[in-house]
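cron nightly-structures :: item 1 of 1
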Amino acid sequence: MTAEFSEKRHSQRLPLALPIKGKCLGKLLHSHSFQGQTQDVSYEGLCIKIDSTNGFKPGQDVALKTRLYPGDFLLKAQGRVCWINGMPDSDWPVNMGVKITHMHRYRLWVERIENKMIEAVVGDTQR
C-alpha cells in the first residue's frame, strides 16, 4: 500500500510539526528573527506557520534551525521564501513556504522524512 497525498508536487509532503527558529538573511543592520512550527515538510522544503508576515517576502533568504526529534541534534539549513499565505484575521495562522537551498546533514533529513512516511503508511495499514 502506498501513502495517499492530496497534492501532486515534485516531492511528497509529510504533515509534521517541528519547532523552527530562524532569521532573514541579507539585511546588514536588521535581522528579523522568527519562531514557528512546520505544517508539513518534504525533501525540498517546508511549510512553516509563523505569527506575522513582517519582514518576509518571496525571494527572501532565511536561515533555519530545527530538531527532528526531541533531544536530537540541531539541523541547520538555509532556504528561500517561495510564498506567503497571510490571512487578514489575526486568528488565522500565517503560512510561509520555504525551499531548502542548503542543509547540513541533508542525507539524514531525507532519511528521517522517509522513516516518518513509512510510519504513516504502516499506521494506515494497521487501522
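cron nightly-structures :: done
Helices lie at 106-125.
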